[in-house]
Amino acid sequence: MFVVEQLINKAIANTEIVDILAAAAISRPNLSVLSDEFLLEVQKMERKNLALEALRKLLNGEIKSRTRTNIVETRKFSERLEAAVARYHANALSTVEVIQELIKLAQDMRAAAQRGEAEGLTPEEIAFYDALADNKSAVEVMGDQKLRVIATELLTALKTNVTVDWRNQENARARMRTLVKRILRKYGYPPDLQDSAVRTVIEQAERILSEIAPIS
Predict the structure, then answer these.
(1) Is 37 helix (H, G, I), strand (E, B) or coil?
(2) Of the given ranges (29-38, 178-187, 197-206), which has the lowest mean pLDDT?
(3) What dihedral angle (degrees, nearest 10) is formed by the CA atoms of 27, 28, 33, 38?
(4) What are the residues whose beta carbons fall under 8 Å from the beta carbon of 117, sequence distance 6 or more?
């Protein structure tokens, strides 16, 4: 516990996020900085203000690392983090209460990272599904399974049609928008929600495709 607290103190003093678990000689996969073991250690820290600041920094770092893969999920987690911290600063939550909220957020983030495996979708397909399901009425009208099918077809079509210089050409973006609209119409995606969905899907596509076809 003393080693962990010392490392957290150092991280906060230097305004840096250090690999606390690795430095404490605890083996971990990518997201076990949000593991139950680590969260329990933070929860037990006597200096609650340091525990809160460490959690805030670590969660913020985890959220930023997901920006390229899932913009809808990233936005929702970021909003939850900001809202919890804002309530704390407004004295609506005690230090202990806000730590509990951040621990719940960490657990939800960890569960979200495992969604694809449970649902048989890749992280990219999950990202497109989230873009399509961002409006709850679309889920109600079409159902989860149909949105998953659309997400898979969108990803395949966009990858197939991407060009190396797509980010430098407005006509390439226009073709991408047309392709997305065509697929949404094909499956009967609610017309009144299409414009919003297209914008979100295109934004998500640009994040994913930038990894496949960098600027020339």
Answers:
(1) helix
(2) 29-38
(3) -50
(4) none
Please count the other Cβ atoms lying within 10 Å of the Cβ belonging to residue 130.
22
Tokens of residue 110, six digits: 């960890």
Alpha-carbon gap, residue 10 to 30, rounded angstroms: 22
Determine the Cα–Cα distance for residues 126 and 85; give it in Å rounded to an integer.
28
Do residue 133 and residue 174 come from a single domain? yes
Question: In terms of domains, do 49 and 105 share one?
Answer: yes
Query: What residue numbers bound the domain in which 181 lies?
Result: 119-212
Instruction: For residue 80, give both structure tokens.
Output: 């939850």
* Distance separating alpha carbons of residues 138 and 193, to the nearest angstrom: 7
Query: Is residue 95 located within the same domain as residue 140?
Result: no
Kindly state the helix (H) or strand (E) to which residue 32 belongs, with its residue range: none
| Burial grade of 139 (CB within 10 A; 0-12, 13-18, 19 or more) | middle
Which position has the higher pLDDT, 30 or 196? 196
- Tell me 18's DSSP state: -
Q: Is residue 7 domain-shared with residue 108, that is, in the same domain?
A: yes
Record the pTM. Answer: 0.74
The conformation of residue 33, written as its DSSP 8-state character, comes to: G
pLDDT recorded at residue 202: 85
